[in-house]
User: Which sequence fits this backbone?
């Protein structure tokens, strides 16, 4: 399909948001390699990282086909202000409860986003979305299992999970910062928009949190953390990017 | 001008040759039986085009397998070989051939169960033990030594085992 200039800008902005979220949370998940509280968790976080970074790569390849740089250059050479990821994904891994809750909230949003994109008019993305749904199912399954188990296990684990939920919830709402191109994307049949995504997300996470005896913060207190989608980031992103691209920048032309 | 071939290569020749290319992490199953070869085309000039699709999007073995496929086909003396990867035909575990299922078993893995296009995650809970056949098993973790495997424990024969996990 041929897009006009405005449409192309809207599409690229949209793709960057999706892929940047995946790359950054993927890298954060990889930081658990060797540190997991159980060997199974070490493997789980590492595997999820591998999935998400691979998924991001294929979306960067779509961007490349639309005239952007190649996937490695996109991933490893941009500065923080060029990233469109939400703040939730860029925070350091913290304690296990924080990382687990972050994954839980993010994975559900991501799963629904790709379900919504399965019949998008942007066919290259639709193919990936249909593929990713099946993979992300295992990510949500992993997070759901542990959130339910730890939410109910004992007083300490319950308190830690509730604290983690309180700490991550407003950040997670930042996933749904509405795009300035939302109308354009909807008109093109590409994406129904962040408002609907957020509604579906609340519906998806509520029963699981209830089963875990965890309480979503009162709606009147919600303060979504926005800015990431426009390139405003926390102090944590830049150092992470420096570390992530360190090897690549040693010799950008190296054959791997 | 080309001198490389006197006999035309057929699609069947290629699929047969690719039986020699095994999954680098599961040497008992070929890329053909795994179901990741989604297109083979030979034109009248004996130029071969092969399309592959990854099992998992983040599969690190993909590039290696592309090269292995290319090298194997070059032994057939084609005018040229082009191997590309895309998602036009997305892989699912239903695409593993019966021979491939046997290959997985030979490697000690529980094969994925057939699904109707949508994997219900619950089917991971009672996977059939590849050692004793019991379904009295417990899922230990949906992630294993490679992206495509999950880890289980058999409550009957008390063995740990891995499953090639179902993907839709």
Assistant:
């Amino acid at each position: 399909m041929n897009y006009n200039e405005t449409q192309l800008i809207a599409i690229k902005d949209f793709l960057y948001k999706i892929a940047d979220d995946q790359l950054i949370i993927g890298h954060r998940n990889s930081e658990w390699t060797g540190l997991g509280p159980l060997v199974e968790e070490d493997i789980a976080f590492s595997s999820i990282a591998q999935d998400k970074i691979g998924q991001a790569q294929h979306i960067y390849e779509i961007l490349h086909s639309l005239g952007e740089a190649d996937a490695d250059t996109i991933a490893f050479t941009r500065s923080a202000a060029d990233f469109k990821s939400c703040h939730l994904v860029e925070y350091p891994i913290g304690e296990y409860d924080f990382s687990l809750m972050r994954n839980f909230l993010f994975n559900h949003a991501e799963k629904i986003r790709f379900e919504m994109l399965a019949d998008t008019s942007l066919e290259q993305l639709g193919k990936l979305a249909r593929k990713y749904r099946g993979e992300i199912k295992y990510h949500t399954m992993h997070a759901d299992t542990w959130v339910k188990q730890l939410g109910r296990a004992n007083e300490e684990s319950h308190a830690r999970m509730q604290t983690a939920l309180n700490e991550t919830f407003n950040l997670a709402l930042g996933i749904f910062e509405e795009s300035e191109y939302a109308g354009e994307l909807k008109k093109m049949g590409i994406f129904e928009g962040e408002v609907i995504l957020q509604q579906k997300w609340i519906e998806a996470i509520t029963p699981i949190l209830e089963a875990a005896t965890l309480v979503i913060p009162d709606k009147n207190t919600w303060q979504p953390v926005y800015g990431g989608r426009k390139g405003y980031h926390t102090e944590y992103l830049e150092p992470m990017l420096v570390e992530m691209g360190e090897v690549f920048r040693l010799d950008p032309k190296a054959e791997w | 001008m080309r001198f490389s071939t006197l006999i035309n290569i057929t699609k069947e020749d290629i699929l047969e040759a690719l039986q020699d290319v095994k999954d680098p992490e599961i040497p008992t199953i070929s890329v053909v039986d795994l179901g990741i070869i989604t297109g083979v085309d030979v034109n009248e000039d004996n130029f071969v085009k092969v399309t592959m699709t990854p099992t998992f999007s983040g599969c690190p073995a993909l590039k290696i397998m592309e090269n292995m496929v290319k090298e194997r086909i070059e032994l057939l003396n084609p005018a040229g070989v082009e191997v590309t990867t895309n998602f036009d035909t997305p892989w699912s575990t239903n695409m593993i051939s019966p021979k491939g299922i046997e290959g997985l078993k030979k490697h000690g893995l529980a094969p994925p169960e057939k699904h109707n296009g949508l994997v219900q995650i619950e089917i991971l809970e009672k996977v059939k033990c590849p050692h004793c056949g019991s379904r009295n098993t417990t899922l230990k973790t949906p992630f294993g030594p490679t992206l495509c495997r999950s880890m289980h424990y058999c409550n009957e024969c008390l063995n740990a085992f891995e499953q090639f996990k179902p993907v839709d």
